[in-house]
C-alpha cells in the first residue's frame, strides 16, 4: 500500500498552487523577497518529490539554509521534513529517521502542536517502514486523535489509511480492509490526491483479502483521479502492481503482464526501487507462467540487481554517516585545543613554559590525529570488507544466472518468432472489438427509435412517468404505447415488456415483441389484452419454431387497455400494482410467459382483469430489474417487498417527483456494484 504524508501549507497565501515547475523556477529567478524564496523552495521540493527526489533534496536544502539564516523555526522544521521525506522515498530510512528526530526536537522545543503533529506523522510512517509496528501505531493513534480534536477529517482519513497499510505489512488483511474502509468514508471531505490514494489503498487491502472485483473498482477509481492532476508515480505504480497481481491470481496472464509493465514504467518515474523490485519479481513470474523463459530470466536478473542496489545504497549511507561523525569529533578536539592555547597565552609565563606547553600541544595534536586516522582507516576497512562480501554474493548470483542463460538461449529464437504473430493477432482482435462495439451502439439508436415518444404518453396520461435503465448498451426491457378507437371509445394501450436475456439477445427479442404488438393491436385491431397476449404467444411460437424443439426464448409482459370508465389488465409473468384510497392492491396476472414452450397447453389462455376508475388510482407496471438488484449495506437483493413499501410511501406525490425518488433509491442501493439486469418501471394515475 501507498503511505500518505500530511503536508501543511506554511504560508498564508499560496499563489503557486496549480503552477508548473517551470513557472515556479522562473518566478524564483525574479524574486528578491526571502519569504517568497522560501515558499518557492518548498513548492519546488514538493513537486520534485513526485519524480526526482535528488532535485527535491536540493531545493529543500536551500529552504533549510535560508530558514537558518532567518532563524525561522517553522521553515527549519519543514525544510528538514522535506529532506527526510525524499530520503524516505529513496529508501534511505536510517538517514530519514535521523533527520525527522532532529525536526521533532525543534518542534517540541518550540511548543507548537501543529508542527509536532506534522513530524510525528512522518516518524510513524518511517518506523512503520522499518518494521517497528508498535512504535508506528502509537504515533498513528496520536495523529488520529489530534485530527478529531481539531476537526480535520482529511487527516483522520490519512491516519486510518496508514494504519491499514501497516496491517498489510503485518499480513493481517481483515484489519487492513477494516481501517481502509473507515478511511474511504471521508472521501467527500478530502482533496483529490488524498482521495485517490485512499481508493488505491482500499483496493490493495481488498486484493489481499481476495475480493478482486471490488478491488478493481477502487483501484481504477484511484488511477482515474491520478491522471487528472499532478500524478504521484509511486501511487500509480502501486495501483498497477496490485491490478497485475489480481489478474495473475486469476490466471489471466496477458492482462497481468500489461499492468506489470505499467507498474515498472511508473516505478522508474518515481525513482522507487521498492516498487521497481516488486514489479520485476512479479513480471518474471508472469513471463514464466506464459512460457517466456528468456524474459522471465531477464526480469529475475533485474530484480536481483535492484535488490542489490537498495542494499548498496543503505550501506554507503551508513558509512557516510560514520565518517561525518568522526570528522565532527576531530573538529571539536581542534577547537578545544585552540581555546586552551588562548587561555595559556593570557598568563605571564616564561619562555621555557611556552616551549613546554607548545610541545605538549603538538604531541597531543599528533596523538589525536593518529587516533582519528587509525579509527577512520578501521571504519573504511570494515566498509570495504562489507562491500567485498556483497560483491562476492553478487558474483555467485551472476554465476547462477549464467547457468540459467545457457538453458534459455535455445528457446529464444522460437519465442521471438511468435512475437510478431501475436502482435498481429492482438491488432485484429482490437479492430474486431471496435467493430462490434460500433455495431451495438448503432443498434441502440435503432432500438431507441422504436420506443414510443414520452411526450405522447404524457399527453394521453398527464400524471405518468417511465423509469428505464438498460444494463448494457441495448436492452431486453422496453415499454410500448398506442392510442386507438374501438366501438367509438378511446383506448390507450400501455405495456411493460421484459424479454429473455439482456444486451444484444434481449434487444433482438424486444424488436420481435414490438413488431408483434403492432401487428395484433394496430393491423389486426385486437382490443382485449388477454386475446392480444394469446395471439402474441401463438405467433411467437411459429416465428421461433418452438413446436419442433425446446426453447426458453420468450418474454414477460404486462398490458393495460385504459378506457374512460375502466382499465383492463392481462399479464404474462408480470403483475399490476396499484393504490386505491391508500390501499395496496396487486393483480398477479398469469404465471407463465409468452413463448414458454415447456407448458403443455397448445395455446396459452390468459385472463382479463377489470378495474373500475370511478375512484382515483395510482398504477405501476414493472420488470424484475429493480427488485433483483444487489446492493445496500449487506449486498442483498432489493426485493419485491421493499419495492412495494417504497411505492406505498411515494404514490401520492406527483409522477415527476416519484420518478426522481425511484432514480435516487436505485442509485443509492446499487452504489458501486454492477447493474445485474435491465430496469423498467412505469407509473400512471387514473382520475
From TrEMBL:
Coiled-coil residue windows: 387-439
Keywords carried by this UniProt record: Coiled coil, Hydrolase, Membrane, Transmembrane, Transmembrane helix
Annotated PPM-type phosphatase domain residues: 497-685
Source domain of life: Bacteria
Record GO terms (molecular function): phosphatase activity
Transmembrane segments: 354-374
Entry-linked InterPro entries: Bact_Sigma-Reg, PPM-type-like_dom_sf, PPM-type_phosphatase-like_dom, TPR-like_helical_dom_sf, TPR_rpt
Pfam families: SpoIIE, TPR_8
The protein's name in its UniProt record: Serine phosphatase RsbU, regulator of sigma subunit
Native species: Marivirga sericea
Amino acid at each position: 500500500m501507498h503511505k500518505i504524508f500530511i503536508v501543511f501549507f506554511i504560508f498564508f497565501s499560496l499563489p503557486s498552487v496549480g503552477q508548473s515547475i517551470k513557472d515556479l523556477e522562473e518566478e524564483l529567478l525574479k524574486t528578491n523577497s526571502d519569504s517568497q524564496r522560501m515558499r518557492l523552495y518548498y513548492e519546488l521540493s514538493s513537486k520534485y518529490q513526485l519524480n526526482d527526489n535528488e532535485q527535491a533534496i536540493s531545493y529543500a536544502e536551500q529552504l533549510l539554509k535560508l530558514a537558518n539564516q532567518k532563524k525561522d523555526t517553522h521553515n527549519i522544521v519543514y525544510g528538514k521534513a522535506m529532506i527526510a521525506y525524499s530520503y524516505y522515498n529513496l529508501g534511505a530510512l536510517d538517514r530519514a529517521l535521523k533527520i525527522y528526530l532532529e525536526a521533532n526536537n525543534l518542534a517540541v522545543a518550540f511548543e507548537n502542536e501543529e508542527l509536532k503533529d506534522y513530524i510525528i506523522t512522518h516518524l510513524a510512517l518511517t518506523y512503520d517502514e522499518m518494521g517497528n509496528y508498535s512504535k508506528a501505531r502509537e504515533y498513528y493513534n496520536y495523529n488520529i486523535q489530534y485530527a478529531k480534536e481539531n476537526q480535520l477529517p482529511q487527516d483522520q482519513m490519512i491516519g486510518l489509511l496508514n494504519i491499514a497499510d501497516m496491517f498489510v505489512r503485518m499480513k493481517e488483511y481483515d484489519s487492513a480492509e477494516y481501517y481502509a474502509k473507515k478511511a474511504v468514508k471521508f472521501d467527500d471531505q478530502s482533496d483529490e490526491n488524498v482521495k485517490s490514494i485512499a481508493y488505491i489503498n482500499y483496493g490493495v487491502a481488498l486484493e489481499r483479502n481476495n475480493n478482486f472485483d471490488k478491488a478493481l473498482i477502487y483501484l481504477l477509481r484511484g488511477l482515474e483521479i491520478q491522471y487528472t492532476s499532478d500524478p504521484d508515480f509511486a501511487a500509480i505504480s502501486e495501483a498497477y502492481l496490485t491490478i497485475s497481481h489480481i489478474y495473475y491470481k486469476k490466471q489471466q496472464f496477458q492482462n497481468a503482464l500489461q499492468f506489470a509493465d505499467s507498474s515498472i514504467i511508473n516505478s522508474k518515474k518515481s525513482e522507487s526501487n521498492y516498487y521497481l523490485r516488486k514489479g520485476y519479481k512479479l513480471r518474471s513470474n508472469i513471463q514464466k507462467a506464459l512460457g517466456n523463459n528468456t524474459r522471465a530470466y531477464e526480469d529475475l536478473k533485474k530484480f536481483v540487481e535492484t535488490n542489490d542496489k537498495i542494499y548498496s545504497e543503505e550501506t554507503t549511507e551508513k558509512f557516510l554517516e560514520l565518517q561525518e561523525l568522526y570528522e565532527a569529533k576531530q573538529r571539536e578536539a581542534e577547537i578545544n585545543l585552540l581555546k586552551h592555547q588562548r587561555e595559556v597565552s593570557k598568563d605571564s609565563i616564561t619562555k621555557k613554559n611556552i616551549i613546554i606547553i607548545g610541545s605538549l600541544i603538538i604531541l597531543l595534536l599528533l596523538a589525536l590525529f593518529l587516533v582519528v586516522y587509525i579509527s577512520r582507516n578501521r571504519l573504511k576497512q570494515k566498509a570495504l570488507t562489507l562491500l567485498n562480501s556483497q560483491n562476492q554474493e553478487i558474483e555467485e548470483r551472476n554465476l547462477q544466472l549464467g547457468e540459467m542463460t545457457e538453458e534459455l538461449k535455445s528457446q529464444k529464437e522460437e519465442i521471438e518468432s511468435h512475437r510478431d504473430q501475436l502482435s498481429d493477432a492482438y491488432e485484429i482482435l482490437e479492430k474486431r472489438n471496435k467493430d462490434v462495439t460500433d455495431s451495438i451502439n448503432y443498434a441502440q439508436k435503432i432500438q431507441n427509435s422504436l420506443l414510443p415518444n414520452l411526450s405522447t404518453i404524457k399527453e394521453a396520461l398527464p400524471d405518468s412517468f417511465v423509469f428505464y435503465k438498460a444494463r448494457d448498451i441495448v436492452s431486453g426491457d422496453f415499454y410500448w404505447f398506442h392510442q386507438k378507437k374501438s366501438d367509438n371509445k378511446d383506448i390507450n394501450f400501455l405495456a411493460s415488456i421484459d424479454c429473455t436475456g439482456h444486451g444484444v439477445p434481449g434487444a433482438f427479442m424486444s424488436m420481435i415483441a414490438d413488431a408483434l404488438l403492432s401487428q395484433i393491436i394496430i393491423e389486426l385491431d385486437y382490443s382485449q389484452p388477454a386475446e392480444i397476449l394469446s395471439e402474441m404467444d401463438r405467433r411467437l411460437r411459429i416465428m421461433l419454431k418452438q413446436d419442433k424443439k425446446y426453447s426458453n426464448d420468450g418474454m414477460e409482459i404486462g398490458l393495460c387497455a385504459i378506457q374512460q370508465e375502466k382499465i383492463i389488465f392481462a399479464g404474462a409473468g408480470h403483475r399490476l400494482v396499484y393504490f386505491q384510497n391508500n390501499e395496496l392492491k396487486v393483480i398477479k396476472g398469469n404465471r407463465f410467459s409468452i413463448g414458454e414452450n415447456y407448458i403443455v397447453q397448445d395455446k396459452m389462455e390468459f385472463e382479463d382483469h377489470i378495474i373500475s376508475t370511478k375512484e382515483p388510482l395510482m398504477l405501476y407496471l414493472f420488470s424484475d430489474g429493480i427488485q433483483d438488484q444487489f446492493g445496500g449495506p449487506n449486498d442483498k437483493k432489493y426485493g419485491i417487498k421493499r419495492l412495494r413499501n417504497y411505492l406505498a410511501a411515494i404514490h401520492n406525490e406527483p409522477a415527476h417527483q416519484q420518478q426522481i425518488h425511484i432514480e435516487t433509491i436505485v442509485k443509492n442501493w446499487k452504489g458501486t456494484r454492477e447493474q445485474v439486469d435491465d430496469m423498467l418501471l412505469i407509473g400512471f394515475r387514473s382520475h
